[in-house]
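Treating backbone geometry as a discrete language has practical consequences that deserve illustration. Part of our work consisted of pairing the sequence of a single chain with a tokenised description of its backbone. What the numbers capture is local backbone geometry rather than side-chain detail. For completeness, the protein is quoted in full, as a sequence line and a line of structure tokens:
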Amino acid sequence: MSFTHRSSQPGRICAASALAALACVWLAVPVHAAAKQQPRAFKADYAVTIYGLTVARSQFTSRISPDSFKLEGAISSAGLAVIFDNTRASTVATGRFSKDATLPDDYSVSYTFGKKMKRTTLAFADGKVSKVINVPPLQKRGKDWVPLDGKDLVAVTDPISAVLVRAPSLGQVCRRTIKVFDGELRADLRLSPVGTGPVDMGAYKGDAAVCSGKFVPVAGYRPGNKSIRYLRDRSDIRITFAPLGETGVYAPIHATVGTQIGTVTFRARQIEAIE
């Protein structure tokens, strides 16, 4: 899932933009009361909509313990988007929790759109990206491309691990910048608090933190790219985070992202414990 995926077909843009925005706003871990010393597993379904029409669905399984996590998911085009763009993706991310941070270990995503296939694998060590594999290899970029520097890959996370926010309280969730690398694009999501509000997800009932987001491209992109420019200069991003039991970890349960083709909405449809 790359922010820079483009196509000349409107339907493909719609579905691909939704999946690209997932890499920007990310996919949520189920919100559920979790035993403090025992790993728990959950299954969740999410819908991606634009103009009220469902363009993608995802299913995620999450295994959360006090000091580690594993997320596995599948994403696919849905509704009318399938007619224009039959995109399917699967992803896995593993990592650990420190006192105030999420530390990814490994990340991989494989997806197909039409007859094309792509796979990206990332590994992390000593607080930075240690390995990047893109299949097929990335194309050679022009002189207008903002190249990656070694310092750009320090203290970053992958697009899936980035959904987990470690914070001492609800009021501190939005006071941070999340640094993300997807195998090509390096970007920041600067969160700021908007307020709190009650949510009732069945699995969780209580207050949630509402954040505004500012998308800031750092490297691995072309400054003239219209999608990147829109996300940077004009996009209205809102994310609602709720706590994962007593773990001190928070995850988004609802998000909206303004794109060139309209506002993309992500929401949890169903969440259940499976163990």
In short: The radius of gyration is 17 Å.
